[in-house]
Amino acid sequence: MTERSSSELAQVSYHRIYADSRGDSHFDIVTVRQTLAQAAPPAAPFYVSGDGPASKYRFYTFEPGWVGELHPAPTRQFLALLSGAVEMETTDGTVRRLEPGDLVLLEDTSGKGHVTRNTGSGFCTFFVVPVPSD
């Protein structure tokens, strides 16, 4: 197992899909900084980020071979892949393969959208948290 430095532990990165002014979608990587905090006493300190707004959650499960043709996101939402294998493609041609543990913020609620494919041999499941616009 590779040791990680405290600066690596103090940040979390996720994929982001957004639409530009022409309606084309693109990927980005967002990094969220965390600080060591006594956040749940008497538990030992751990790394914590700032709060973000959220009030509900849902699960998406796609059958083997499922393809979500080019579509905008139904709402701004975080997707955390729990199981399976997925690839997402933006209109600029970028394809990202996601594995369990990967996190994506979908912000392309307008424009052409993105394509999602279940590329695994079984079902894939996302934990989804709709989030308000910034």
From TrEMBL:
Pfam families attached to this UniProt entry: Cupin_2
Coiled-coil ranges (or none): none
Residue span, Cupin type-2 domain: 59-129
Protein name: Cupin
Highest classification ranks of the organism: Archaea, Methanobacteriati, Methanobacteriota, Stenosarchaea group, Methanomicrobia
